[in-house]
Amino acid sequence: MGFELPEIEYDYDALEPHLDSQTMELHHSKHHAGYTANLNAAVQGTEHEGKSIEEIMIEGMDNPAIRNNGGGYWNHSLFWKIMSPSGGGEPRGNLANAINDQFGSFSEMKDQVKNAAMTRFGSGWAWLCVSGAELTVCSTPNQDNPLMTGEGVPILGIDVWEHAYYKKFGPGRGDYIDSWWNVVDWDVVSGLYENTL
Ligand code: MN3
Predict the structure, then answer these.
(1) Which residues contact 147 (CB under 8 A, 6 or more apart)?
(2) What is the distance in A from the centroid of ligand 1 to the CA of 116?
(3) CA-based nearest residue to 27, from 80, 83, 81
(4) Residue ranges with strand state E in the chain
(5) What rounded mean pLDDT belongs to the chain?
(6) Residue in 91, 86, 93, 82 with CA at minimum distance from that of residue 110
(7) Terminus of the chain with fewer CB atoms < 10 Å: N or C?
(8) Residue 73 and residue 6: Cα distance in Å, rounded?
(9) Residue 1: which pLDDT band, with cuts at 50, 70 and 90?
(10) Residue 154, CB half-sphere, CA atoms under 13 Å: how many?
(11) Per the confidence metrics, is the pTM higher than 0.90?
(12) Domains of the chain
């Protein structure tokens, strides 16, 4: 059976004009589908078969096929989930309070995530994580993520591989990040935060 490509709960063009339809379609139906198929192939017949994606990613870190495709599978599953056509705005409740306590303001948190994303050389991700009792910002290369590296539990992640933005934004990674905040669904991110408490 193995892992299946998760469905996205909105249409490929639903995040326009912030993220373009063609990028969304290729990103999900080609890139994420590829990680899914390659993960299943890498796990088949090994001791990892039948385990959860979280277990496989962490236990398979020394296997490049599992590390890259397991991370790619998990990271993109989070990415689609934390975006929506009704995204944007600011978090409320416990997450808003935690962000203000940790960073001083919502905009400072966004600046730190953007900085982490901008300074990730080459391909990778930037993250907002829960680590112990704290919110932390970090970035990881390739398809690694903070669960794999032990840096925390991601509640928000932005893909800064060129395949995520180049068609619409060219080399303008910063413009892509600025646009991306308009589709972040803070209700979902808040729910992920609450689950870690
Ligand atoms: Mn990607």
Answers:
(1) 54, 57, 58, 74, 153, 154
(2) 17
(3) 80
(4) 124-131, 134-141, 153-159
(5) 97
(6) 91
(7) N
(8) 9
(9) low
(10) 27
(11) yes
(12) 21-81 (1.10.287.990), 93-196 (3.55.40.20)
- State the distance from the centre of ligand 1 to the C-alpha of 164, rounded, in angstroms: 5
Contacts 24+ apart (CB under 8 A), 62-66: 65/38, 65/39, 65/41, 66/39, 66/42
For 118, phi and psi rounded to 5 degrees?
Answer: -70, -30
Q: What is the pLDDT of residues 152-194, one digit of tens each?
A: 999 999 999 999 999 999 999 999 999 999 999 999 999 999 9
- Which tens digits make up the pLDDT trace of 100-153? 999 999 999 999 999 999 999 999 999 999 999 999 999 999 999 999 999 999
Distance from residue 129's CA to the centre of ligand 1 (Å): 19
How many angstroms does the Cα of residue 110 sit away from the middle of ligand 1?
A: 20
